[in-house]
C-alpha cells in the first residue's frame, strides 16, 4: 500500500496546482467585486436620483413641519413622520416582548417534539407570507370584527404581526449562539432555569436580540401594502393627540385611536397625483424614508459592533 | 460481577494486606477496595442512558471518601465524564436521559438521583474542562453562586470573595483588579477563578471534569497544587485523562473502562500494585 501511494504522488507538479488554484481565486474575487459594484451602484444611483429630484423640497425647512397640501410647494411630511414614529412605537411595544418571549420559549423551555417542530416550520412560513395578506387579516379582524377603525393602534398591530416571525427567529438564533458552556456554568452553580435565563442567557444574547428587533422594525417602517389595506389616509392635516398632556395624569393614550398616515403612504399618495411638482415632493419624502431606514440599520450595526468589542 | 459479590471478596481481610499479597490476575474482572474513613457518598449499581438510548454507565458501584480527592481515569469514551456529571445531574439539562441505581449522599442517606436536580446542583459544585467564567467582572464571577442563592450583603460577599480566591490560590494575583472582566485573565487564572466560584458556595462535593486539559504545564501545576491543598478540606471527584496527574493529586483512584468500573483502590496501590490485569495494561501503557 505504501509503494502505491508513493507512485501516485510522485508525478504531481505542485507548482501548477498552486498556480491553477490562485487563478481560480482571482477569477472568483473579480466576479465578486463586479457583482458588488453593480449592487452598490444601483443603490447609490437610486438614492442620488431621488435626492436630486427632491432637493428643492428637502432644502425647505417647512417641508418637515407642514401638513400635506393641495399645492405641491406647500405640501409637507409632518403628519407622515409623526404617524410613522407613533406606529413604530406601537409595533415595537407589541412585537418585541411577544417575539422575544416566543423565541425564548421555543428555544429553551419547549420540549423538542413534533408539535414544536410544526410551530417552528410555521413561524418560518409566516415570515414568507406576503404583507398584503396581513393587511387583509387586520382589515377583517381588527377593523371589521373588533370595530377598532383605521387607527394608529391597528396599523401598529398589523405591522407587529408582520415582523413577529423575524423577531422570533432572530431571538432564537441569538440564544442558540450562546455557548453551552455558559449555560452549564450557570446551572452547575445551582441556578434554576429562570435565573439562568435572566441573569446569563438573555444578557449575553441581548445584542443579537436587539439587532433582530431593529431589522424587523426597519422592515416595518417601509411597509405600505398592509397599511393601505386597513385604510390609512394619505391626506391628513392634523396630528394625533399628544401622548403627554398638561392635565393629570399627564399621559394620554388617545393617539392610539387617532387616524394617521405614514411615510410610505404619503409618498404613494403623492406619486399618484398628476401634477409634476408632486413628484418632487414624493422624491423628497422617499429620501427621508430611506434615511430613516438606514439610520435604524446603522443603529443595529453599531450595537452588534459594540457587543463584539466588549 | 455485582457489587455484592465484590463486597464478599474482601470480607474479613484488611485491604492493604491483601493488596500486597495478591498480584494481578488474568481472570479478575473487577476489584474494589472498601476504604477506611468516613464516606461522603456511595454509588450503588449506577446505570445511565443518554437520550438516544446508548448506555454510558453500566452498573458502577464505588464509595466517595469524605474530604479526600478521588480520581477517575480511563481511556476516552470510557464514561468517566458521564459518570462525574451524574453527581450534579448535569445530564438532566438534556432530553430523554435515564438513570437507575443510586448515588447516596452520606450521612443524610439521600439518593441524589431522586432529588430535584436544581437542589443537587446547589449542593454539588462543578468545574468544567474548558474554563467558563461568566462575561462579567472577577468579583461578580465569584459571587455568582451566592447571588443565585439570594445572598446580597456586601460585607458577607467581600469576605467570601477573599476566602474563596485565597483557597483557589488566586487572591494575590487579582486582589487589585477584582472589577476587571474575568475574560481578560489567562486561561489558567480563569480556571482557578472557576474553582473559586465553585468553592464560594461551600459545595458538599466538588466535581472537576478534566480541569487542566485546556491549560499549559505551568497553569496545570498551579491547579494541581491547589487540588492538593483542597485534600483534607473538600470532597473532590476529578476526571483526568492524565495518569501521572491522578497519581500526583488523588488519594483514591477508579479505573473505568467501557462504562464499567474495573478497579477502585487507594491511588498508591492502584498505580504500584494494580489488582486487575486490565488496570495494569492501562497504567503501564500497553493499552489505551
TrEMBL record, chain A:
Record Pfam families: BPD_transp_1
Membrane-spanning ranges: 26-48, 78-106, 126-146, 152-170, 220-239, 280-303
InterPro entries, A to Z: MetI-like, MetI-like_sf, Phosphate_PstA
Statement: the UniProt record of this protein carries the keyword Zinc-finger: no
Residue span(s) of domain ABC transmembrane type-1: 81-300
Location of this chain's protein in the cell: Cell inner membrane; Cell membrane
Membrane topology: Multi-pass membrane protein
Superkingdom of this protein's organism: Bacteria
Keyword Membrane carried by entry: yes
Keywords, ordered alphabetically: Cell membrane, Membrane, Transmembrane, Transmembrane helix, Transport
Similarity comment: family membership: Belongs to the binding-protein-dependent transport system permease family. CysTW subfamily.
The protein's name in its UniProt record: Phosphate transport system permease protein PstA
From TrEMBL, chain B:
Signal peptide: none
UniProt cross-references to SMART domains, sorted A to Z: AAA (SM00382)
Provenance organism: Halomonas gemina
Protein name: Phosphate ABC transporter ATP-binding protein PstB
Region: Disordered, residue numbers: 1-28
Record has Hydrolase as a keyword: no
NCBIfam families (UniProt xref): 3a0107s01c2
Any one GO molecular function term: ATP binding
Span of domain ABC transporter: 41-283
InterPro entries tied to this protein: AAA+_ATPase, ABC_transporter-like_ATP-bd, ABC_transporter-like_CS, P-loop_NTPase, PstB-like
Key words, A-Z: ATP-binding, Nucleotide-binding, Phosphate transport, Transport
Residue ranges with Basic and acidic residues bias: 19-28
Xref: Pfam families: ABC_tran
Amino acid at each position: 500500500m505504501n509503494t502505491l501511494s508513493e507512485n501516485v504522488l510522485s508525478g504531481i507538479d505542485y507548482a501548477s496546482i498552486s498556480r491553477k488554484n490562485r487563478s481560480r481565486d482571482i477569477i472568483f474575487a473579480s466576479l465578486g467585486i463586479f457583482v458588488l459594484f453593480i449592487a452598490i451602484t444601483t443603490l447609490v444611483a437610486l438614492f442620488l436620483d431621488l435626492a436630486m429630484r427632491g432637493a428643492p423640497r428637502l432644502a425647505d425647512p417647512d417641508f418637515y413641519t407642514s401638513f400635506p397640501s393641495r399645492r405641491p410647494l406647500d405640501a409637507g411630511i409632518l403628519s407622515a413622520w409623526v404617524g410613522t414614529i407613533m406606529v413604530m412605537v406601537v409595533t415595537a411595544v407589541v412585537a418585541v416582548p411577544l417575539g422575544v418571549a416566543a423565541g425564548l420559549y421555543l428555544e429553551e423551555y419547549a420540549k423538542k417534539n413534533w408539535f414544536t417542530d410544526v410551530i417552528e416550520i410555521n413561524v418560518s412560513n409566516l415570515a414568507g407570507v406576503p404583507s398584503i395578506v396581513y393587511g387583509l387579516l387586520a382589515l377583517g379582524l381588527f377593523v371589521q370584527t373588533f370595530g377598532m377603525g383605521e387607527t394608529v393602534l391597528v396599523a401598529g398591530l398589523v405591522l407587529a404581526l408582520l415582523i413577529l416571525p423575524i423577531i422570533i427567529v432572530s431571538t432564537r438564533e441569538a440564544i442558540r449562539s450562546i455557548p453551552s458552556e455558559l449555560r452549564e456554568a450557570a446551572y452547575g452553580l445551582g441556578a434554576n432555569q429562570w435565573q439562568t435565563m435572566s441573569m446569563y442567557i438573555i444578557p449575553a444574547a441581548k445584542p443579537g436580540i436587539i439587532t433582530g428587533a431593529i431589522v424587523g422594525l426597519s422592515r416595518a417602517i417601509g411597509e405600505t401594502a398592509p397599511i393601505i389595506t386597513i385604510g390609512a389616509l394619505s391626506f391628513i392635516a392634523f396630528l394625533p393627540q399628544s401622548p403627554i398632556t398638561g392635565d393629570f395624569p399627564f399621559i394620554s393614550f388617545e393617539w392610539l385611536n387617532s387616524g394617521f398616515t405614514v411615510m410610505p403612504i404619503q409618498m404613494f399618495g403623492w406619486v399618484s397625483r398628476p401634477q409634476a411638482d408632486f413628484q418632487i415632493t414624493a422624491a423628497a419624502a422617499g429620501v427621508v424614508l430611506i434615511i430613516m431606514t438606514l439610520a435604524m440599520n446603522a443603529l443595529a450595526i453599531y450595537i452588534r459592533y459594540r457587543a463584539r468589542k466588549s | 460481577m455485582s457489587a455484592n459479590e465484590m463486597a464478599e471478596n474482601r470480607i474479613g481481610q484488611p485491604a492493604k494486606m491483601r493488596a500486597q499479597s495478591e498480584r494481578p490476575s488474568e481472570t479478575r474482572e473487577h476489584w474494589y477496595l472498601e476504604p477506611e474513613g468516613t464516606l461522603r457518598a456511595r454509588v450503588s449499581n449506577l446505570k445511565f442512558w443518554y437520550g438516544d438510548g446508548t448506555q454510558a454507565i453500566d452498573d458502577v458501584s464505588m464509595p466517595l471518601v469524605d474530604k479526600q480527592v478521588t480520581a477517575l481515569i480511563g481511556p476516552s469514551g470510557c464514561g468517566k465524564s458521564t459518570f462525574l456529571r451524574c453527581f450534579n445531574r448535569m445530564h438532566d439539562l438534556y432530553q430523554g436521559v435515564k438513570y437507575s441505581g443510586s448515588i447516596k449522599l452520606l450521612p443524610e442517606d439521600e439518593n441524589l438521583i431522586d432529588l430535584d436536580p436544581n437542589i443537587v446542583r446547589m449542593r454539588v459544585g462543578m468545574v468544567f474542562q474548558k474554563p467558563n467564567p461568566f462575561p462579567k467582572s472577577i468579583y461578580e464571577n465569584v459571587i455568582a453562586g451566592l447571588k443565585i442563592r439570594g445572598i446580597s450583603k456586601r460585607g458577607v460577599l467581600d469576605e467570601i470573595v477573599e476566602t474563596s480566591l485565597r483557597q483557589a490560590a488566586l487572591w494575590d494575583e487579582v486582589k487589585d483588579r477584582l472589577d476587571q472582566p474575568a475574560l481578560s485573565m489567562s486561561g489558567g487564572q480563569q480556571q482557578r477563578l472557576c474553582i473559586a466560584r465553585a468553592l464560594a458556595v461551600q459545595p458538599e462535593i466538588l466535581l472537576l471534569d478534566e480541569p487542566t486539559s485546556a491549560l499549559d504545564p505551568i497553569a496545570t501545576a498551579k491547579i494541581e497544587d491547589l487540588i492538593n491543598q483542597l485534600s483534607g478540606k473538600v470532597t473532590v471527584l476529578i476526571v483526568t485523562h492524565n495518569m501521572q496527574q491522578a497519581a500526583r493529586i488523588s488519594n483514591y483512584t477508579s479505573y473505568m473502562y467501557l462504562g464499567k468500573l474495573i478497579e477502585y483502590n487507594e491511588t498508591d496501590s492502584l498505580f504500584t500494585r494494580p489488582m486487575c490485569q486490565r488496570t495494569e495494561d492501562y497504567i503501564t501503557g500497553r493499552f489505551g
